[in-house]
Amino acid sequence: MKGILLVTWKEFIHIARDRIGLFIMVAFPAITLMLYGYALNFDVKNVRLGVCDLDKTKESRAFVRSFLAHDYFGLVEDLQSAEEVEKALSHGEIAVGIVIPKDFGRAVQTGKEIAVQALIDGANAQSANTVLGYIKGFTLNFVARKIQEKLEATGLRIGQGGMDLRMLMYYNPTLETARFLVPGLMGIVLTVMAVVATALSLVREKERGTMTMLKMLPFRAYQIVIGKTLPYLLFSLFAAGLVLVASKVLFGVEVKGSLLLLFSMLLVYLFGALALGVFISSLTESAQVAFTIGVTMTMLPSFILSGFVFPLESMPWAVRAVSYIVPARYIIAIIRAIMLKGEGLQTFMFEFLWLVGFAIAMTLFASIRVRKTLAG
Amino acid sequence: MAEAVIEAKELSKRFGDFVAVDRVSFQVMAGEVFGFLGPNGAGKTTTIRMLCGLMKPSSGSARVASHDCAKESEKVKKRIGYMSQKFTLYPDLTVRENLEFYGSIYGVKNLKARLHEVIGIVWLQGLENKLAKDLAVGHRQRLALGCAIVHNPPVLFLDEPTSGVDPEKRRKFWELIYELKSQGTTILVTTHYMDEAEYCERLALIGSGRILACDTPAAIKKALWSVQVVELVCEPQIGALKVLKSHRACLFASAFGKAIHAGIVGGDEAVRSVYETLLSNGVVVHSTSKAEPSLEDAFIYLVQQGKSS
Amino acid sequence: MTGVFAIVKKEFKQIARDRKMIPLVLASPVFQLVLLGYAATMDIKEVRLAVCDHDKSSMSRELVRSVVASDIFRAVAFVDNEDQIDPLIASSKVYMGLVLPKDFEKAIVSMKGTSVLVVADGSEAAKATIALNYMQEALLIFASEQARKALAMVGARDIPLIRVEPRVFYNEELKSRDFMVPAVLAMVLMVMTVVLSSMNIVREKEYGTIEQLVVTPLKGGALIAGKLLPFLVIGLVDICIVVLVAVFWFAVPMRGSYVSLLLASLLFLVSTLGLGLFVSTVAKTQQQAMMIAVFFVMVPSVLLSGFIFPIENMPTIFQEASRFVPMRHYLAIVRDLFLKGTGLRSHLSEVVQLAGLGVFIFGLAATMFRKRVD
């Protein structure tokens, strides 16, 4: 125990000397959240629409107007031909173009079938899907209104008819992206921060040659590993606290569940992430290598494989399997459960146990490597 | 008159209110082994930096190898070699690779042959392929020296080249320095080892940014001719020092291990008076002897002089 | 000039000596490419649905069938009471719930109003939006079909039917992968070059070797060039690797010219190397360099460049701010190079902005470096 405290103390002094690094470590997760919480959004709005109206009748104009009623579609360009629409697409001036054929108005009036072309820039598949959905939805609405008009015109008295769709979003009634982003961003930023903080801890010693000194002192490997992890734990928890404060103050996102539980989970998680950094640090003598491994292992996987942005169920099983060893995945699920749903430990027992296992495993791996280095 | 290879005129450097180098002037002639002696913080490194063209002086000027250090620093750099106090070579390159690197930077012709030569000069044969970080301290110093001379500069600046090296290896290193001198190199060495200073042909003593003396070691020591240096073993030592320092005839007094070196002015009478004062203050004098003024004595004396003036 | 060559040679020697670096340089791009290539998809499938059918009529059953017809939704729970849905969502056993009221069929047939309730787990908003869109579409199609049938039975004629015929350009199958893989190229380049260049000069500062360099007649410019050239080479090697894997393994179409790709990449590399150099000058230790590089260069690049989050959706301030992120411009150029085959001329404004950024950043970094060294 004493050995651990000694290493912790030494590491502590070291951290305190680097004021800038310390500031970044503590403040930046919150700053990142503040900035990007405002910036990031999945909603597809203000889509640039190009219209080629080959009909130019009352109906076709009403049709076009129906698209512009809300802010789903933004800038509209009037184009004269399908070729122009294609050109505009390829230049990126519009994201989608509608071509209304010549007999549109007549078809609507006489009740025939008519096809409207939607030319979509498919580069961003997700947006393209959404945009297509909008177009289909608006079209259906337009048709429904036309039907209504006809019925009224013929004097048929029918009920309001139709099906009303009520939608309820749990935990996020207004579907604010922020509510969803906060747990995700928090998980990712804290992960990256933790690993970056400790990834150079052992490399430093090796480069300075103080490793030889460490070899001569009566420290066991695990004492060094834990001792190097603990001081950062304190700062990381503090950083996490700042993030929570920022999310409450700026985005009104509160912790629905138990704050104590949340912090306990964060504690376990951060310990594991920091230990991962120490492990990376033990693999190499070069700061460049440690940095590369650290960034490659944390940044992209945490974004991509944690369920933050891309739904995990949609991935091929091989990739989904890899996601099981991405720590961010678990902490994000836990944070979401506690912050947004107010759930208790029993709901995410699996995730919790995984995190505990992760922390132990990382400490173990790091200790093994350090023991090798000390002996060699 | 031959032109000085290194010349400093009223060289000064101020950092805000702090005067690190105060109107330093001296000359070093071609082929001399010149020493800069002084404690840490006296301004040695700052002066060398200005001479190497690394720092611009606040006032005054310096010339090295016929070029102005501040205005023609690029030309100066081509004609000097520098060996730093700390180890500043690449630990992850071998001896040969380090030498090769600096050789290319200086544009040395026939590099391969020169490398072979340098390795011979600094006695690193057999270690060419060893990584610099795996070298013993003594070998590292020699490698650093090798990198400093790879381009055969007429002037060498060695900043505390033997710090951390044991006396036996220190002697060997100085053999190297004189070997280089015999080939015509002018060498300026800084050190805080008094015994090393004796190896220099001429010395400048620096304290608090000022030159206290600039002459041959022998001449400096002679400056104390009017001062009688006595070596005493007293008890209590601290009490004795107090008494001595407050005595009129005692110019300086300091402890050297168990003994005290005291500089007394005024001949034998003064010496007797000092002894009496000691005894009357309850100090027991175990032994006394006359001592040759050493460089250290001279230094302390001069520093004190400097302080009082 | 010899000075530059000497430094380049030294840098390569040092990189080669670091035995883990070379495999990393080669493997990490492939690793990230594979990850992103396979993982990046916004298509959702098999969303777990709980159904509460109070009506249990043939029409309500038909509605449920039509909803789960595609493999987007999978009905995993049938409950009798809508309160039973809540705990299922809370424990994440089910993601959405569909509640059909009693007398559903009767209401539809008689054209009276009726209401269908859909509940979803909003804690994963991205998924929720997509899922809801699909659900809405399925329900709307069902509703309009029913309306048509009902009207036909009443004898109403002349009911229009407007069909939307989609033509998707550049990505007919709407694969997210083709959109993401070019982005990975940018990501890989950025990470690799920023890591290498930001660490490098700080390392010389930490070791003290910079002191020995300063005494030589080596000019600051030569030092910078010598140090960054090897990383430029490494960057180009990484580009080749990524393009090879992308085109031959993932079959991402490359419709543009490779020369344009090379040119754009070179411009981009100038920015990233400049940024790394800048970090290296400002940081005092390698640890600091790492933190600054991650938070001031990498995180903004990932979040603001349009890599994952579309720029059009950001508030105006952020849209403008993202102009200063070199990756934004490079990404736009590269994505269109691959998918649309449009060359640099169509992206003149991006090219200009990228070049301008590169020159500015690099110039600033070089000036700061010279100042510090002197």
Task: Provide the fold topology.
The complex is a heterotrimer of chains A (376), B (309) and C (374).
Chain A: H1 2-17, H2 19-39, E1 47-53, H3 58-68, E2 73-78, H4 82-90, E3 96-100, H5 104-110, E4 113-121, H6 125-154, E5 163-170, H7 177-198, H8 201-208, H9 210-216, H10 221-251, H11 259-283, H12 287-304, H13 317-323, H14 327-341, H15 349-375
Parallel strand pairs in A: 1-2, 1-3
Antiparallel strand pairs in A: 3-4
Helix pairs in contact in A: 1-10, 2-7, 2-10, 7-10, 7-11, 7-12, 7-14, 10-11, 10-15, 11-12, 11-14, 11-15, 14-15
Chain B: E1 6-15, E2 18-28, E3 33-37, H1 44-51, E4 59-64, E5 67-68, H2 73-79, E6 80-83, H3 95-105, H4 111-121, H5 137-149, E7 155-159, H6 167-182, E8 186-191, H7 194-197, E9 202-207, E10 210-215, H8 217-222, E11 227-235, H9 237-246, E12 250-256, E13 259-265, H10 267-280, E14 284-291, H11 295-308
Parallel strand pairs in B: 3-8, 3-9, 6-7, 7-8
Antiparallel strand pairs in B: 1-2, 1-4, 4-5, 9-10, 11-13, 11-14, 12-13
Chain C: H1 2-17, H2 21-39, E1 47-53, H3 58-69, E2 73-78, H4 85-90, E3 96-100, H5 104-109, E4 114-121, H6 125-154, E5 161-169, H7 176-207, H8 209-215, H9 220-249, H10 258-282, H11 286-304, H12 316-321, H13 326-339, H14 348-373
Parallel strand pairs in C: 1-2, 1-3
Antiparallel strand pairs in C: 3-4
Commentary on this structure:
The complex is a heterotrimer of chains A (376), B (309) and C (374). Chain A is α/β, with parallel strands linked by helices. Chain A contains 15 helices and five strands. In chain A, 68% of the residues lie in helices and 9% in strands. In chain A, strand 1 (47-53), helix 3 and strand 2 form a beta-alpha-beta unit. The longest helix of chain A is centred in the middle third of the chain and has 31 residues, at 221-251. Chain A is elongated and about 95 Å long. In chain A, 51% of the residues are buried. Chain B folds into two domains: 4-216, Rossmann fold; 228-292, Protein-tyrosine phosphatase receptor IA-2 ectodomain (Alpha-Beta Plaits, 2-Layer Sandwich). Chain B is 37% helix and 30% strand. In chain B, the strands form three sheets. Chain B has a six-stranded mixed β-sheet, with helices on both faces. A four-stranded antiparallel β-sheet of chain B has the order 2-1-4-5, covered by helices on one side. In chain B, a hairpin with a 2-residue loop joins strand 4 and strand 5. By secondary structure, chain C is of the alpha/beta class. Chain C is built from 14 helices and five strands. Chain C has helices at residues 2-17, 21-39, 58-69, 85-90, 104-109, 125-154, 176-207, 209-215, 220-249, 258-282, 286-304, 316-321, 326-339, 348-373, and strands spanning 47-53, 73-78, 96-100, 114-121, 161-169. The longest helix of chain C is centred in the middle third of the chain and has 32 residues, at 176-207. The mean pLDDT of chain C is 84. Chains A and C meet through helix 2, helix 4, helix 5, strand 4 and helix 6 of A and helix 2, helix 4, strand 4, helix 6 and strand 5 of C.
